[in-house]
Specification:
heterodimer; A: 402 residues; 2 domains; four-stranded mixed beta sheet; B: Rossmann fold; four-stranded antiparallel beta sheet
């Protein structure tokens, strides 16, 4: 029995590795594509943020109050040129031209006096500062943000009643109020994003090969040639599922490398990359590998069953669509929950159990029982799938239906 | 003569889809393809199943090859039942039909080895047999050419060779010359005679009278899934040409139906 299964596995691998196009689409392309797209997106976002951001902007200020003027002492270093010139509606309309690096700011004529006499509890509207800018021009958007921050800080400073988490800047070791470590923050982000990404990669890996391997063989009439050999149907089923899982795993790894390499570029600048670095132990990786393997097995099994049921490759693709939605949904769930579930029954649900274990791994919360339940459940489900696939290979209705 | 194949009361019905009902112009949900078929074949003979299209020949052969399961009845091939011991049966037979295809991606060399292993042929025998068969059918020059790039005739010869990797005693051949060019058809029929000379038993189906007359030792006439006549050619024909005999029987059976 073993040798026939091995013969089938060898043939499937020979088929796969002998086909440059298939190697490219299933092994190289996913990783490469993810790397290129993520890197491109990262670079694109960065250049969008950077573009024009440092250009000099003319800031026309009408009625500059004496109390505010000192705030603009270092305006030159921020590439802002202050022009104390009044402006009209026509000037405001001209800002529609997004190439015009100008921001207009208008204070009430007696701003300082209004400020001094204003009582917040009076219900009267507070003195208002108008700032006209164009948010599609990165330079004026930048200046608007600076002005907004500057004025808000000033407002807080003149009516400060209490502080929250004040940091003593002069202290050598300032108190840290957020007790989460960098590891915790990184782990939380990874545990919400990576399970879905991994699951989707594995799914597309299986989809790249399983339909052509079973539905394709039906369509081309080559499965019948296999069925007239003395090989048992379960040997064929096992051989197909094992080989498909192996190839899908390789495809998943390719995607994973793509993500790992492109992620630093994707989150360039915005986040402290050191805080997001992987800090996982060999044990974590081992559990992750086992879980991925279990997920691949169940995925290859279910898609094999659908492919065997399908009339042709196209039909198999259509039949797998609802499954893809289910897998995506399972992958999305960690984003809406706080860590992995402790209810063991959850780990009996195929697909979702792998997501939960992966979430736990990335959040540094791995417990052995859920992992064991997941692995055992998936192996049992795969066993059931092999049995069903065996029945399907034996069924003339399934194999020879036109 | 030694009996090597015994078919007893073999029956098979299919459920018709609505589309098939329209094509067949019937309201019946089920169609009987094979109806209590019985016959025997002896070791070292070529037995032909002769009948028009749709008579149930292919279904019968597919049941013998264990690709279809009979609704009732059984067939025993060299002591193994197609119902109870399908793997044993497949070990003892070669089954060839134009519907069995080879994967375009692989070379004849690879496929011969692959199917030999699935049939449990040892490496030494496999190599010797491959060299001999490839040379016999002129495949040796194309041994490393992918099936996709072979000519139609070469593909058909390769299918024949691959089906015989284990060189079994019983060869079941559905419409052996269907779709073959004259040269390949001749190669195949010559080879069938060689196989008979080597003591193999061949069961073939056909609707070509001349093929039966030229090749078969015994023949069974099938109409509407039922065996109408069975025996040696001389017994069945009784002095008149096979074609005339067949149409006489056909008219008798179908009567006023047509």
């Amino acid at each position: 029995m073993k040798s026939n299964t091995l013969t089938i596995i060898k043939k499937e691998f020979a088929r796969f590795f002998g086909d440059r196009q298939l190697i490219f689409t299933a092994l190289i392309m996913p990783g490469l594509l993810i790397y290129l797209i993520y890197s491109f997106m990262g670079t694109g976002i960065e250049s969008m943020i950077q573009e024009g951001a440092n250009d000099n902007v003319a800031l026309r200020v009408e009625n500059m109050p004496e109390s505010i003027a000192p705030l603009f002492d270092n305006a030159d270093s921020l590439n802002i040129t202050i022009l104390p010139v009044p402006f009209t509606q026509k000037d405001i309309d001209q800002l529609e031209d997004k190439d015009l690096n100008t921001v207009l700011m208008r204070f009430p004529a007696d701003f300082d006096q209004q400020l001094a006499t204003y009582v917040p509890q009076s219900g009267e509207p507070a003195p208002n500062i108008e700032i006209y800018y164009n948010s599609t021009n990165n330079a004026t958007q930048r200046v608007f943000s600076i002005l907004e921050t500057m004025l808000t800080t000033y407002e807080e400073s003149i009516c400060n009643r209490f502080d929250i988490n004040r940091v003593d800047e002069t202290s050598e070791e300032p108190v840290s109020f957020d007790q989460a470590t960098d590891d915790n923050i990184g782990a939380m982000i990874w545990s919400k994003i990576l399970p879905m990404l991994i699951l989707m990669m594995l799914f597309s890996g299986v989809m790249a090969i399983a339909p052509s391997s079973i539905a394709g063989e039906k369509e081309r009439g080559t499965i019948a040639t296999l069925l007239v050999t003395p090989m048992r149907r379960n040997e064929l089923a096992l051989g197909k599922i094992i080989s498909l899982s192996g190839i899908a795993l390789m495809s998943g790894i390719s995607s994973f490398i793509g993500i790992a390499l492109s992620l630093p570029k994707m989150i360039h600048g915005d986040v402290d990359t050191a805080a997001l670095g992987f800090h996982y132990t060999t044990g974590d990786y081992f559990v992750l590998l086992l879980t991925i393997l279990a997920a691949v097995l169940i995925m290859a099994s279910v898609i094999s069953l659908l492919s065997a049921l399908a009339k042709d490759v196209k039909n198999a693709g259509t039949m797998a669509l609802p499954l893809m939605l289910v897998v995506m949904l399972c992958g999305l769930l960690p984003m809406f929950q706080n860590g992995a579930s402790e209810n063991l029954a959850i780990y009996l649900i195929p697909f979702y159990n792998s997501v939960e274990v992966m979430t736990a791994v990335f959040a540094h919360e791995v417990l052995w029982m859920p992992v064991v339940v997941t692995l055992v459940a998936n192996v049992v489900y795969t066993g059931i799938a092999v049995w069903v696939l065996t029945r399907m290979f034996s069924s003339e209705k399934v194999m020879f239906a036109k | 003569m030694n009996e090597i194949l015994r078919v007893e009361g073999l029956s098979k019905t299919f459920t018709l889809s609505r589309k098939q009902q329209k094509i067949e112009r019937t309201n019946a949900r089920r169609k009987t393809a094979v109806d209590g078929l019985s016959f025997v074949a002896h070791k070292g003979e070529i037995f032909g199943l002769l009948g028009p299209n749709g008579a149930g020949k292919t279904t019968t052969l597919r049941m013998l090859a264990t690709l279809l399961r009979p609704d009732s009845g059984d067939a025993t091939i060299d002591g193994s039942s197609v119902v109870a011991q399908p793997e044993e049966v497949r070990r003892k037979i070669a089954f060839l039909t134009s519907e069995l295809k080879l994967e375009d991606f692989f070379t004849p060399n690879y496929l011969f080895d692959f199917f030999s292993r699935l049939h449990g042929v040892d490496e030494v025998t496999m190599r010797g047999r491959k060299a001999q068969m490839f040379q016999r059918f002129g495949i040796d020059k194309f041994a490393e050419v992918k099936v996709a790039n072979l000519s139609t005739g070469m593909k058909q010869k390769l299918s024949l060779v691959i089906s015989l990797v284990h060189y079994p005693d019983i060869i079941i051949f559905d419409e052996p010359t269907n779709g073959l060019d004259v040269l390949t058809a001749r190669t195949v029929t010559d080879y069938l005679q060689e196989l008979r000379a080597a003591g193999k038993t061949i069961i073939l189906s056909t609707h070509i009278f001349s093929l039966v007359e030229r090749l078969c030792d015994r023949v069974g006439l099938i109409i509407d899934g039922r065996m109408i006549a069975c025996g040696s050619l001389s017994e069945v024909c009784n002095g008149i040409p096979l074609e005339d005999k067949f149409f006489n029987i056909y008219k008798e059976v179908k009567g006023g139906e047509e």
